[in-house]
RNA sequence: CGCGGGAUAGAGCAAUUGGCAGCUCGCCAGGCCCAUAACCUGGAGGUUCUCGGUUCAAGUCCGAGUCCCGCAACCA
């Protein structure tokens, strides 16, 4: 038996400075949908997520709330883990950067880069704002003062370690020229390629420990800790055992996709590959950059007070419709908007009137006209089969492969409409009155089989709804899920005579 | 003149190499009675941001301008 193809994908590790908001859930969700889809394709998927807990802001927040920073890190990370559970995210591992396994291995990574001659010490002088506890550039200042603290920063000199990013200018250019898919979508690729072409400077990758005691110690230098990005990025390999027990690393690395938000594209598309080259590791295949969510057309912010709590929203509307809405409405390669009105509109149109109603409509007729059993088929409807196999499935898979889950779901809606049209067209209730029962059976068989296809297609986004539909069709979801997509998408998989499960509306309409 | 994306029906989006401007929601009118007042059919609604150019033909190509937005080392 050939070895299963692997697929390793990650989310960014969110900075656990505060509670998760819906943006974090969105990223986990995009990644989860891809993970589930890849599993359906029969691949051996490994899905990593976690939290980034080091750095100035965490340290400051802990100090302000008067709790040990380790405790804050653990507490906030637990919230992110709860979020993943609640949202039915199928990650295989959850890494926190303050775990020993990560700290040890991140230090190994540092040593590897050092061994390549890419780390050197340099005096750095800059304008330091005591209020921010950070260096500022001239551009950050307003009238020579820090805009947040209205104080003039002081000129401070500090000796830090630097990473020779500039050394990788050419290899990175080569990478971008050779691999146009390295950053997806294209607009983000172009953005980064332009930054790259304008020339890369070496970057500071450590901070003095006096200023920041909360971080991973630089190997061999007790006075310095690693800069958060150098620390955080390595999580993608430390979680696989880099530098210690590399069984998973050998199996799954390089990553097939790092799923990230647009704001951290530079780190992933430029710094990270350079770091990997330095450490002698292979490069990830794709950096998949998603957009942001706005709420009622506005950027989410605490000041405006429109931040959506991902735990609250799934309590209010239940999980699967929320997963559906986000995947249908927020295109991966762009920003998308959330509003209660839009949610209800989508819910009623696509889920209640579309999917839910069709399921109920078909199965009620099976109960009414066919004794509640999947009927015998006399004559196959080649037109429908052709439509499904030549148009719907190829479109669906093309969109899923390209992270365009919105378009994939649109394709499903199109097929649902097609089924509704078929019912209106053939009028099974009239056929039944005329006693043409074999025609009724043929039609209902095809509709049941169509429902099965729909259930398969929605699985990555709405796994529980998918199972409910399969159960109502009298199928065993566990058995179905064990099959590969190539098998599942072929026609005529239903067992004739299968007793259909108990009918229950999937998505009762929402009021206004 | 830092780099890049965009402006299309009330809203959100589509339009392979230029070739009758489409889809979803909403709205209006019919139909149907299997279904969750659901579903199906038809209709109204557009100076495709502005001005100029190329062409038999421009949403699409070229030039100028207006307005939004993204990126520019730590907001998913």
Report a brief summary of the structure.
The protein is of the alpha/beta class and 512 residues long.
List keywords for this structure.
single chain, 512 residues, alpha/beta, Rossmann fold, Isoleucyl-tRNA Synthetase, Domain 1, six-stranded parallel sheet, four-stranded antiparallel sheet, 20 helices, elongated, RNA-binding
Written account of the structure:
It contains 20 helices and 16 strands. The chain has 512 residues and is α/β, with parallel strands linked by helices. The chain folds into two domains: 240 residues, HUPs (Rossmann fold, 3-Layer(aba) Sandwich); 149 residues, Isoleucyl-tRNA Synthetase, Domain 1. The strands form four sheets. The protein has a six-stranded parallel sheet with strand order 3-2-1-12-13-7, with helices on both faces. Strands 5-4-6-8 form a four-stranded antiparallel sheet. It has a three-stranded antiparallel sheet with strand order 9-11-10. Helix 6 packs across helix 10. It is elongated and about 90 Å long. It binds one RNA strand of 76 nucleotides through helix 1, helix 6, strand 8, helix 7 and helix 10.
As a percent range, the share of strand residues is 5-15%
* Terminal CA distance: 54 Å
The CATH class assignment of the largest domain is Alpha Beta
Overall mean confidence score, pLDDT? 87
Into how many domains do the coordinates divide?
2
Q: Fraction of residues in helices?
A: 40-55%
What gyration radius follows from the Cα positions, in whole Å?
Answer: 27 Å
Q: What is the annotated CATH architecture of the largest domain?
A: 3-Layer(aba) Sandwich
Largest sheet: 6 strands, parallel
Overall geometric form? elongated
Beta strand count: 16
SS-based class: alpha/beta
CATH topology of the largest domain: Rossmann fold
Low-confidence stretches: none
User: What is the H level of CATH, i.e. the homologous superfamily of the largest domain?
Assistant: HUPs
Across the major sheet, the strand order is 3-2-1-12-13-7
